[in-house]
Amino acid sequence: MQTASVRRLAQPIYAASLLSAIGKGTMLLLIPIQGLELGGLMGGFSLPGMFAVGAVLTNLPGALAVTRWGHKPVMLFGLGLVALSALGVAYSPSLLWMNLGAFAYGLGQGANAFARTTYLADMVPLEQRGRVVSAVGGSHRVGLFIGPAAGGAVAAFAGRPTAIATVGLCAALGLILIALWLPPGKTQPAARPATPWSMVGRVLSEHRRTFATAGLAMLTLAMIRHGRMLLIPICGTVLGLGAAEVGVVKSLSMGVDMLLFYPAGLVMDRFGRKWTALPCLLVLAVGVLLIGSAGSYEALLVGGLVAGFGNGLGSGINMTLAGDFSPQKGRAEFIGVWGLTSDLGSAVAPFVMGAVASAMSLAGAAAVTAGTGFCGAALVLFAMRETLQRRTA
Question: What are the structural domains of the chain?
Answer without folding.
Answer: 3-180+197-392 (1.20.1250.20)
